[in-house]
Amino acid sequence: MQGKIIIFSAPSGAGKTTIVKHLLQVNPLLAFSISACTRDKRGRTEENGKDYYFITPEEFKQKIAKDEFVEWEEVYEGAFYGTLKSEIERIWESGKHVILDVDVKGGLSIKHFYKERALAVFVKPPSIEELAKRLQARNTDSASSISSRVFKAEFEMKFEDQFDKVIVNDNLEEACSKAEKLVNEFLNAEPAIV
Ligand code: ADP
Ligand code: 5GP
């Protein structure tokens, strides 16, 4: 089997993590690519090596110098996130397909890197107002972090047309079943020629 890669991108708060977690529960062929990042771990809700590889800015710079990333971004000021080549290879070698959740620019970079081997899905919130409400209700970010995420979201919404597929996440159940359908279609299609 040739491994494929499924990218979920969206402005922060649109629901991509929730949808990706659902897909991982229902589809045993998928494995989550854990990114490296330099931000602090969120209290007790996150684990190193499960949610992210939490590393220092110095370690991150060394990995850039050694060309260890497929892509990396300073997603928010001072917070670097990157997709490790070793992580994608590890998952493919285990016989699974990769699923990942990255910001909009990162998602498009990964799509350009893997081309037909990748499916890039944009998760769209019903509105920016609803996105802000979800970020507040999630209760994981400070007021200033929420406002920088909402500000960035307005810019990121312009990239929807560059994705292979768009899912509007209004009703979560409907968005999850659409995501399941898109993923199954992509995985059942002829293997990509790369
Ligand atoms: P992202 O990964 O895109 O930042 P999350 O998956 O963390 O977004 O979702 C943001 C918040 O919105 C979470 O608290 C999540 O439970 C909630 N959420 C996700 N989808 C919906 C939805 N369709 N309706 C209402 N709340 C939602
Ligand atoms: P959070 O800090 O809320 O976990 O994530 C912030 C943003 O960084 C989210 O939009 C998330 O999808 C994105 N992100 C996570 N990992 C990566 C990565 O490896 N590369 C890029 N470009 N963005 C990432």
What would you note in describing this structure?
It is a single chain. With 194 residues, this protein is α/β, with parallel strands linked by helices. The chain has a single domain, classed as Rossmann fold, CATH 3.40.50. It has 7 helices and 9 strands, in the order βαβββαββαβαβααβα. It has a 5-stranded parallel β-sheet with strand order 2-7-1-8-9, with helices on both faces. Strands 4-3-6-5 form a 4-stranded mixed β-sheet, sandwiched between helices. The protein starts with a strand and ends in a 6-residue tail after the last helix. The mean pLDDT is 94. Residues 12, 35, 39, 71, 73, 75, 81-83, 101-103, 106 line the site of guanosine-5'-monophosphate.
